[in-house]
Amino acid sequence: MKKIDIGIDEKDREKIAAGLKHLLADSYTLYLQTHNFHWNVTGPLFRELHLMFEEQYTELADAVDDIAERIRTLGVAAPGTYQAFAQLSSIEEVVEIPAAEDMVKILTKGHERVIKTCRDVLKSAQKGEDESTIALVSDRMRVHEKTAWMLRATSSK
After folding, report:
1. For 62-94, how does the pLDDT look when each residue is reduced to its tens digit (9 = 90+)?
2. What is the similarity comment for this entry (predicted)?
3. In angstroms, what CA-CA distances link 27 with 4, 44, 114, 138, 155?
């Protein structure tokens, strides 16, 4: 790749990109989990949760593209395999199909985890004075905070 001269030190770019890889992995894992729950939710809240989960995984599908493209903009290869995502993600995979109420709890926890990953990336981006990553990550954090709130509001417990 040609030399990148965008006003961010190479070491800072690499550190920011490393954090973004974790954010990408967390976001993609949460996308898969949400899509799985969309397909498999049952019970009295089926329609409401089915539609809510669809909105959420659709939003996440766009987000992973933005995050991966930011990694590439910083001059680093974006991970794109299940194996890489499994190694990088801090979100636990759910093997079984949980009850609808548990799906809501699991997704809430997942969004809260992504928020924490965002906060970690934000620190690196601020240190490297990377305004573009700061804006992207701040926007992602806001979406996940709102989604977690909405999921918590859906839960009866």
Report:
1. 999 999 999 999 999 999 999 999 999 999 989
2. Belongs to the Dps family.
3. 27, 28, 7, 14, 22
Place of tokens 């609808």: 100
Q: Which sign, positive or negative, has the C-alpha torsion 138, 143, 147, 150?
A: positive
Q: What are phi and psi of 6, to 5 degrees?
A: -115, 15
Residues in the chain: 157
Domains in the chain: boundaries: 10-154
In CATH terms, the fold of domain 10-154 is Ferritin (1.20.1260)
3 Rama class: left (phi>0) / alpha (psi -120 to 50) / beta? beta
Mean pLDDT in runs of 10 for the chain (157 residues)?
A: 83 96 98 97 95 97 97 96 95 94 97 98 96 98 97 82
Give residue-wise pLDDT tens across range 16-25: 999 999 999 9
